[in-house]
Write a structure and sequence with these properties.
238 residues; alpha/beta; four-stranded mixed beta sheet
């Protein structure tokens, strides 16, 4: 009778251990699925018309050397033409946000009045989705037309990015094109896209391998958390 009571007690304790292990694994899976911190307009630095802040690299994708080049180039554009161009990068948008809605809201936040919006251009990039957008005030449309502005965002920036996430090259090209257009030079146009035929490999990508490895580890932990207490109980009873 005593042995039966002890066995029941051990079995109850083991069941609790298995339940705790399952809950822990579930929690680990949920935490791993949580999205990274998103960026909203409220989290961006404050900028006003006339501020000598030209590049805000929140995504940390532009080298210090190239950021210095862009700062000098955009400062020269402002001095020569009166047009203030700002490049903004960030890592992940708030849910439901798009690159264009972010650019529009950022523009309105930084330049809330009609006077402050004059001669302002904001070009943005989300490096998680690699989506880009531009918001240019109508006062610069005589030089930076809507078509050219859209081409700068969706072609000049996007071509180097699609060619291996060449962010530095993308912004340098955008700066060169904006400098030419805003100073009255002929529009050099978007980069030439070279079409190449690439055979798709059958090997797993690095991120897929990492994800599969993490899944195997978690499943292994779950199996161990379930089987080991059972084996321990069986040995105890024997």
């Amino acid at each position: 009778m005593v042995k039966s009571a002890n066995t029941a007690s051990v079995w109850t304790a083991l069941c609790k251990s298995v339940l705790i292990a399952l809950v822990s694994v579930f929690f680990m899976l949920q935490v791993g699925a949580l999205p990274a911190h998103a960026t909203g307009v409220y989290s961006m630095p404050s900028v006003a018309a006339g501020d000598p802040t030209w590049v805000i690299d929140e995504a940390d994708i532009i080298s210090r050397l190239n950021q210095g080049k862009l700062d000098r180039q955009l400062a020269a554009i402002a001095e020569e033409t009166g047009v203030e161009v700002r490049f903004v990068t960030f890592h992940r948008l708030d849910y439901g946000e798009t690159a264009q809605s972010f650019a529009d809201q950022l523009f309105e936040t930084w330049f809330p009045t009609t006077d402050s919006q004059a001669n302002q251009v904001v070009l943005v990039l989300d490096n998680v989705t690699n989506t880009t957008a531009i918001h240019a005030d109508a006062s610069v449309s005589d030089r930076l037309t809507a078509e050219i502005a859209e081409s700068v965002a969706q072609e000049t920036l996007q071509v180097p990015i699609r060619d291996g996430n060449k962010y530095n090259q993308a912004f340098l090209d955008a700066g060169d094109r904006l400098l030419a257009v805003l100073t009255g030079q002929p529009d050099p146009g978007p980069p030439v896209v070279e079409v190449t035929i690439q055979t798709e490999g059958t090997y797993a990508k690095a991120e897929e391998t990492d994800q599969n490895s993490s899944t195997v580890i978690i499943v292994g932990f779950l199996i161990a958390a379930t089987v080991i207490p059972m084996v321990t109980y069986y040995i105890y009873v024997r």
